Give the backbone structure.
Amino acid sequence: MIREMQKLVRAIAISFCLLFIQSTLHAGEKVFNVKSPNGKLSVEVTVGEKIEYSISHNGTLLLSKSPISMTLSDGKILGQTPKGVKSKKRTEKEMITSPFYRVKSFETEYNELALTFSGNYGVTFRAYNEGAAYRFVTTLKGEIEIENEQADFNFDKDYTTYMAYSTGKTEPEAMAFQNLYTVAKISEGDASNLSFLPVTIAYEGGKKMTITEADLEAYPGMFIRPQAGKTSFSGSFARLPLKTKISPYRCQEVVTDRANCIAKVKGTRTFPWRAFAVTEKDTEMPVNNLVYALAPANCIGDYSWVKPGKVAWDWWNDWGLTGVDFKAGINMETYKYYIDFASKNKLEYVVLDEGWYLPKSGDVMTVIPELNLPELVRYAKDKNVKLILWAVLNSLDEKLEEACKHYSAMGIAGFKVDFLDRDDQKAVEMVYRAAQKTAEYKMMIDYHGMYKPTGLNRTYPNVINFEAVFGMEEVKWGKIENDMPAYDVTMPFIRMMAGPVDFTPGALRNATKRDFQAIYYNPMSMGTRCHQLALYIVYDSPFTMLCDAPSAYEKEEACTKFIANLPTVAEDTKILSGEIGQYIVSARQNKGTWYVGGLTNWTARDIEVDFSFLGNGSYTATIMKDGVNANKNATDYKQETIKVTKDTKMKMQMASGGGFAMIVSQQ
């Protein structure tokens, strides 16, 4: 009995000691909080043995305590046992001019918490109404080598996620950044692979948080790695390239060896924002402006020479002209035909895609003998059309100054660059070099074969578009299991939040789910004709392709005229209705005219279009909608013109894989 009492006393004493130690540790912690201007979103930062933060929104815990740190190669860990913390808060309100974006301008406001620590570093947190963000800041001397960055994401429950996994077979950080979304619980994520950003987490009640990043400069992009069986993710970063080789087919640069660090950077700098876009309903997602707001402002000055527009494009249709008296291909007759088509339909551009120089040579300064490029430029100029040249990005980068000087003087409007397929530090630096140099020569640049947008289009308004999307090219070789209609109504809610998409729509050979086949040289789309027309309205794409052959469009005058009359920029964008993965209805306004587009997945559905977004007065709506037989023949459509007002509510029927598109102009 006495021994048992002694054991009990010891146990109680130990418990009290543990409680004392725990209370002492908690007492040593400091807690900071910053809220969004509307008070809904809250970021709580705990500074103790490490730096942790959590995010809440209207009582919902979106992100549990998650640690962050940055490990330097000299052994220092910024964020481990941080000392000497000081805090400073400020509020900023800004009216942002946003050229070639989904809106002409928008107002943003945030509350900022800047924490600084002994050791010349800090972390800045921001809370916007649209979401939250944080980034590291260092004021160290000379150059520093970053071994790794800790970016953990912990969740209190096993929520549903939308993740697009890497397709890289050799290494997951090197691939085209395009894949379908995997919808699964956090704990069911593929821990053997990486997901590229953005990644979306769905909560109860329709609330969602999308993880991405902004202001990615001289630093590798972040991937997300699921933790097997756990409700957490961790950030992952490509290591710095040490050696590269040039692949023989296109002279694409491929990394063959990497360092043990992720970056070598200036010791005094700000690092990329880790961004968390928060939405209460799905219709807020495609128009969330957090990434653009976080990006640095325009650095090139005057951009009046940047002209968005539509493009007659050669590659997707494989130069597939019919009914002509010359052999179609990469030659003068073919491109003059494309130019004539563009001019007739008031399309602003023609792209000369892969083949105008020999890709396997890597020499962007030598045009193939079949083309007289100065003559083509003159011919296009007389037709009020401009030319864009395709190039493998690293091949252009090798002769960047020479190429920009030479081709800008010739009259080339810009470059469509391709096959970067990486976002390590060296790749990101290449992207910035190309943006800066083309701007100096007043040339636009379209980033194909590219990682997701991080706000570069705000900093460099001459950056007119980005791929990083599972676009129309995929139907040339994809199977029906690659569910494009479902992707088409998922991507706008996730990927498009980060920036515009080089999706390349416009197919005139359209197929039902039953009839679809992958045909490389004569490709078809999944879904209806009107689904294709609606893509031009639903997707942010200031530089957008007409992917089919000019001779095919000439046989479909009504559809071609409709596409040609659509603008590629908007003064205002609204999402009228929608549900991620199911359907979406978008409305854009440009110069007083509204453009309304709707898309559905393979499920046929009826939806109601509410025209209350219109102003006073009467409007004429030119409507392209799925025909009554579109479920059997996907090319079937009907065109009609009706009168509408802001009081109109119209039922629209969308076929399986269908859609509709409207031009609504005031009388």
